[in-house]
Amino acid sequence: MNNLFTNTGSSSFSGFLGEHAPDLLPFRNQQLAAPVGDQIPHATTIVVVTCAGGVVMAGDRRATSGNIISQRDMQKVFRTDDYSCLGIAGTASTGIEMARLYQVELEHYEKMEGRSLSTEGKANRLATMIKGNLPMAMQGLVVVPIFAAYDPNLDAGRIFGYDVGGGPYEQFQYHSIGSGSIFAKGSLKKLYRENASPEDAVLTCVQALYDAADDDSATGGPDVTRKIWPAVAVITADGFRRLSDDEVAGYVQAMLEARMTDPDGPTAPLR
Amino acid sequence: MRDRAEYARKGIARGRSVVVMQYADGILFVAPNPSKALHKISEIYDRIGFAAVGRYNEFESLRLAGIRYADINGYTYNRNDVTGRGLANLYAQQLGMIFTDSIKSLEVEIVVAEVGDSAEEDQIYRLTFDGSVFDEQGMAVIGGQSEAVAGRLKERYRPGLPLGEALDAALVALTEPGGERSPVGQLEVAVLDRTREQRKFQRLAGPRLERLLTSSTPAPAPEPTLPEKGAPEVDTGPPTAPDGDIDTGSEP
Description:
The structure holds two protein chains of two kinds.
Chain A: H1 2-6, H2 13-20, E1 42-43, E2 46-51, E3 54-59, E4 63-65, E5 68-71, E6 77-81, E7 84-91, H3 92-113, H4 119-132, H5 134-138, E8 143-151, E9 156-163, E10 166-171, E11 174-177, H6 181-191, H7 198-215, E12 231-236, E13 239-242, H8 245-261
Helix pairs in contact in A: 6-7
Chain B: H1 2-13, E1 18-23, E2 26-32, E3 41-45, E4 48-54, H2 56-76, H3 84-101, E5 108-114, E6 123-127, E7 133-136, E8 139-142, H4 146-156, H5 163-174, E9 187-193, E10 201-204, H6 206-216
């Protein structure tokens, strides 16, 4: 308990946790007897698209263990503070724990210092946390998040990608991670429009996720019978907003209707 | 021991008072504070706020420890498992330990307030330099002249006051009879608003605070927020000297 009063080193929560209660950190340096990656549920595809004055993140809802669908309604887009969010792909449990720690990390800094971290500061902090997970990643517990934020200094949305060793790699226009990301990126490349409205950007994300689910077995498409829709978050100068199920359902229905006659979705002009 | 208590009381009495009180939607914190950066009022966690008077470096380290305590418990268990009572106990232990073991006791008086889902579940704890905890009902006043301020506040306090009226009551209490109110720029005001999502703490400043003040100003108070009028009364410097009689701590 004494640590609570004497630790004045830095405003980092994970740094403090490492000293005060290291067993609570998601990343530990213990060796697993055998790689367990295949037996633990994996989260799959996340897409991020910048729009006029902000950024939109969307994720499918499926988690898989090998060929089994372990969860149909998983949430993998997390609000991290008023102006940022985090999407996770890879080992679901470690990813959720990392997102939870990261949320506290940002809030802790804000309360201690009386100001929010800069957007770059947030992105760098996440890189350090991913690097901390590297030993576990080598054992098969890979987590690769994607970070999106509204930057008040630029009045624009920004996207940061990572790899298992950390990062960050700033991405422009759009980005995608997870098993369906190859297909989602192909779709985004053709559907991305500069300075689209947030509404159009949401539709772009929903289309890209559908294209990913179309070709990747681990990515879940919209579940019409169970009414499970993609998780969508919009961040603008007004802050973080998660779209309600009804709102997302509207976008998905519009997309599905168009795909009834044109299953491959919208086409980009050739010239 | 007695010298130490005397010393702490004198240190605390030097600062201006801070008022913490319930209003219709939660808990209101009001502190006259000329500094924009050095806060007397702060957020600890979703539902918990902190107010302090006395030595800045001493209560600042208590504040930081409180944030560490809350964040680590919320992370270990769940956000709902962080309580104002737990935090008040932690502070009480630390203050009590320092009071008995150290050469110098902390010259601070603090309030830990937690907003509940309804007014009945709101909690306000006042802690003194020796680690005593007081479970206050409806309102708490800390700092120099806290008794006089509390007396004035009691006259105007009613349960369930709207925000504007509660703020007005707090400012009347913080102003000596016949004295001039602190201008808007020298007030630190915050609320724990139970109607907000997740993080209930919010600072009120700038235009929003001005609007609240003008909307609630009662007719009899003559020009409450015009510091340039009546030059001899202008008192905008930081609180460096006792505002009134020093609490000598000699009451039984």
